[in-house]
Specification:
With 429 residues, the protein is α/β, with parallel strands linked by helices. It has a domain at 56-143 and 167-187 and 248-284 and 306-401: 3-Layer(aba) Sandwich (Cytosolic phospholipase A2 catalytic domain), CATH 3.40.1090.10. It contains 17 helices and 12 strands. It has helices at 8-24, 31-34, 45-48, 70-87, 106-115, 127-141, 165-174, 203-208, 216-224, 243-246, 251-260, 301-323, 328-331, 343-347, 351-362, 382-397, 410-416; strands at 56-61, 100-103, 186-192, 197-202, 226-230, 237-241, 274-279, 283-284, 332-335, 338-339, 365-370, 374-381. The strands form 3 sheets. Strands 1, 2, 3, 4, 5, 6, 7 and 9 form an 8-stranded mixed sheet that branches. A two-stranded parallel sheet has the order 8-10. A two-stranded antiparallel ribbon has the order 11-12. Helix 1 crosses helix 12 (301-323), helix 4 (70-87) packs across helix 16 (382-397) and helix 5 (106-115) packs antiparallel against helix 6 (127-141). The radius of gyration is 20 Å and the shape is globular. Residues 60-255 form the PNPLA domain. Lipolytic acyl hydrolase (LAH). Possesses non-specific lipolytic acyl hydrolase (LAH) activity. Hydrolyzes phospholipids as well as galactolipids. May play a role in disease resistance. Its EC number is 3.1.1.-.
Length: 429
């Protein structure tokens, strides 16, 4: 499926059509919508292989958000630590347990770090390495907005310049790797100023034609801020700006890609054949001007920009959660948190303080989308949701043979455990 075909209008149509048909018109069988698709398989993975919990596993990572990407990075560290403990494999990586990954903004950089093959074909970055990379380089990767850019224009970051600090950091991390070097299908969006539409960099497009293959370091520059980049053959030029503004929550893009890609995912017949882990990056609380006792609603330009960006990400979360119906509690895991003071993440450069703040957000009760009722606070914390997700990922990896919460080898799993918090593994080298 070519990258150009993944237009966000199509993404929105696919997700919302499932939502509309499933809930507004009473259709309760997701397969009903997909079996009529030419080339669609009549059987789900579970039906094709009785007794196996076969699902396509999707990882989605939001743009930087209120935590500059650190909440998602911390979630990945905890998830990888749990996967290692459950499997007893101390070398296990995030990429081993997902079939597709999508990320925008700093989330796109995290996806690139964890899914781009190194010299030996395996990603050199663990989740802890990626967290450390983000802590050390987030100022270079995503420069602070200027005061003049406080309005909607401020949603777009400064463009990358060859030889600049961002270019040096990304070149050191990825070298000459391109989208074709991704070990699993990846989707990383940006907004193309030349066409006035969302452009999604994808491994599927890169494999199809040189005109859709781009250097990973330039893809990261495009989604995290902005850059005019060319494909490896020089034929395709993208005047890219902020992927977070284009698709702050890329979960819908990943789901649509899988549902429409019969070549790579022939047995997927509906959303119940998916397992989606969507990682948010925090939402700041309401400004004092609209908080209780704050003297009424006085929204400024920065607030309007925040509402537009975060509202779009929340809309995707709502639509995706609802499209899963009865499966949303098991097949769709969303990690998101609310910050009382988002400025601390932007101002702090102390790794220990950032780790503590991230763990505090993971200890929050998870917020769930509820049909026609907005959101509610669940009974489980974000950390507990991640533990449950890791158990589900391992069960899929084992074909349903591993019970939830039970490691395959208790003795070897002890070797992978760390004293105290799993976040300790993310300390700077």
């Amino acid at each position: 499926m070519a990258a150009a075909d993944l237009d966000m209008n199509k993404v929105s149509y696919e997700i919302f059509s499932i939502l509309e048909s499933k809930f507004l018109f009473g259709y309760d069988d997701p397969k009903r919508f997909l079996q009529a698709t030419p080339g669609a398989s009549p059987l789900s993975p579970a039906a094709a292989a009785p007794g196996l919990s076969a699902k396509v596993r999707i990882l989605s990572v939001d743009a930087g958000g209120a935590t500059d990407g650190l909440l998602a990075a911390a979630s990945l560290v905890r998830l990888e630590s749990s996967l290692r403990r459950l499997t007893g494999d101390c070398s296990a990586r995030i990429c081993d347990f997902f079939d597709v990954a999508a990320g925008s903004g700093l989330g796109g950089i995290l996806v690139a770090l964890l899914f781009t093959g190194g010299p030996g074909g395996r990603p050199p970055f663990s989740a802890a390495d990626a967290f450390d990379f983000l802590v050390r380089n987030r100022r270079a990767l995503q420069p602070a907005r200027t005061k003049k850019g406080a309005g909607l224009a401020g949603m777009f970051r400064k463009k990358s310049h060859a030889g600049g600090r961002r270019d040096q950091v990304l070149r050191q991390a990825f070298g000459s790797a391109t989208l074709r070097d991704a070990v699993k299908p990846v989707l990383i969006p940006c907004y193309d100023l030349a066409t006035g539409a969302t452009f999604v960099f994808s491994r599927a497009g890169a494999a199809e034609a040189d005109g859709y293959d781009f250097p990973i370091r330039e893809v990261c520059a495009a989604t995290a801020g902005g850059a005019e980049i060319r494909s490896v053959d020089g034929r395709t030029v993208v005047a890219a700006v902020d992927g977070g503004a284009a698709a702050g929550n890329p979960a819908a893009a990943a789901i649509t890609h899988v549902l429409n890609n019969r070549a790579e995912f022939p047995f997927v017949a509906g959303v119940e054949d998916l397992l989606v882990v969507s990682l948010g990056n925090g939402e700041p609380g309401a400004p004092a001007s609209v908080a209780p006792g704050g003297g009424g609603a006085r929204w400024g330009k920065p607030d309007a920009a925040r509402i537009a960006s975060e509202g779009a990400a929340d809309m995707v979360d709502q639509a995706v959660a609802m499209s899963f119906g009865d499966h949303r509690s098991t097949n769709y895991v969303r990690v998101q948190a609310n910050l009382c003071d988002s400025g601390k993440f932007q101002s702090s450069s102390d790794t220990g303080e950032l780790l503590a703040m991230a763990e505090g957000l993971l200890a929050q009760k998870n917020v769930e989308s509820v049909l026609f009722w907005g959101k509610r606070v669940s009974q489980r914390t974000n950390a507990e949701r991640l533990e449950s997700a890791s158990a589900a990922l391992v069960r899929v990896q084992d074909g349903g043979r591993t019970k939830e919460g039970s490691p395959r080898s208790s003795s070897s799993s002890l070797l992978c455990s760390t004293s105290g918090s799993p976040m300790a593994a993310a300390s700077p080298r």
